[in-house]
Specification:
The chain has 2 domains: 178 residues, Rossmann fold (3-Layer(aba) Sandwich), CATH 3.40.50.720; 85 residues, N-(1-d-carboxylethyl)-l-norvaline Dehydrogenase, domain 2 (Orthogonal Bundle), CATH 1.10.1040.10. The protein is of the alpha/beta class. 47% of the residues lie in helices and 14% in strands. Strands 3-2-1-4-5-6-7-8 form an 8-stranded mixed β-sheet, with helices on both faces. Helix 7 packs across helix 9 and helix 7 crosses helix 10. The structure holds nicotinamide-adenine-dinucleotide. Nicotinamide-adenine-dinucleotide (NAD) binds next to helix 1, helix 4 and strand 6.
């Protein structure tokens, strides 16, 4: 299938990154969010990210303008009527994603593929909110999207292999490496990663070491480019909590129980970099 137009739903840290790499690959992009100021902020973030590429001489100033010119910020789902592929990247809440997939299914043309960037929610369950479960798939980009190579491609129970092939090709056209896995809670990436991040939060909660100490031990000792607490702040503590809840619910195993410290930070609105405060302070 020939993908020309992509709609990205959600203009937050993942959504604007996906819109950027899609526009850089030459696709026509609609970037949607619930309010004009949020999509405008998304465009601003993309513009800043492209400025850094111009500075590094990876693209020209003219390239930047044409990439931005391919992105139309929108606040309705109507533009889904023109898309060949929709990539949903809104908050990690099943009820919100379910509603969006119902809407996209109603508006998008029958050939359109509906993908979710979910970190952990069941693709099969999301697909069941539509009348085209064979065209629903997980397209899990990593953060920050313009930098990270991987796209984890998650096949739901009903996903058509041709849809998987098309999504793999689309990911490759954006300079990414697609790797497939089955639809299990947390997929491959977050089933492994979240246990580590949660354990680091438990260590902080128990006073085993300072946040800086925990991160430094993992960086210097394991050669991780970022410590687990700094990474949790980058991902967003609300997202980390939602993923742990999906893992706990999905496997019924107490090893995934979220650390109480994580819950209090989320209830305080200290969500990490995106709010200027999480485990660390950013302002
Ligand atoms: N943060 C990460 O490191 C990371 C990595 C991979 C995947 N993900 C997944 O990507 C998704 C988005 O995460 P994020 O970090 O970009 O979150 P974010 O909080 O930065 O952005 C979420 C955006 O969704 C928007 N939104 C909420 N309801 C909406 C609706 N009904 N219609 C349109 N937009 C709506 C919000 O306004 C917000 O701008 C989640 O499913 C998350 O699990 C996150």
């Amino acid at each position: 299938m020939n993908i020309k137009t992509i709609m990205v739903i959600g203009a937050g840290q993942m959504g604007n990154g996906i819109a950027q790499v899609a526009a850089q690959a030459g696709y026509t992009v609609y970037m949607n969010d619930i309010a004009q100021e949020i999509v405008d902020k998304g465009v601003e973030t993309i513009s800043g990210s492209l400025d850094r590429l111009v500075k590094k001489e990876k693209i020209t100033a003219a390239d930047k303008e044409s990439i931005l010119g391919r992105i139309t910020p929108v606040t309705t789902y109507d533009e889904a009527a023109n898309c060949d592929l929709a990539v949903e990247a809104v908050v990690e809440k099943m009820e919100i994603k379910a509603k969006i997939f119902g809407e996209l299914d109603r508006i998008a043309p029958p050939h359109a593929i509906l993908a979710s960037n979910t970190s952990s929610l069941p693709i099969t369950g999301i697909a069941a909110c539509t009348k085209r479960p064979e065209k629903v798939i997980g397209m899990h980009f990593m953060n920050p999207v313009p930098v990270m190579k991987l796209v984890e491609v998650i096949n739901g129970l009903a996903t058509d292999p041709d849809v998987t092939k098309t999504v793999r090709e689309a990911a490759e056209s954006m300079g990414k490496v697609p790797v497939e896995c089955r639809d299990v809670p947390g997929f491959v990436s977050n089933r492994v990663l979240m246990v580590m991040l949660n354990e680091a939060l438990w260590e902080l909660y128990e006073g085993v070491a300072t946040a800086e100490g925990i991160d430094q031990i993992m960086k210097l000792g394991m050669n991780h480019p970022m410590g687990p607490l700094a990474l949790a702040d980058l991902i967003g503590l609300d997202t980390v909590l939602s993923i742990l809840e999906v893992l706990q619910d999905g496997y019924g195993d107490p090893k995934y129980r979220p650390c109480p410290l994580l819950k209090s930070y989320v209830s305080a609105g200290w969500l990490g970099r995106k709010t200027g405060r999480g485990i660390y302070l950013y302002s």
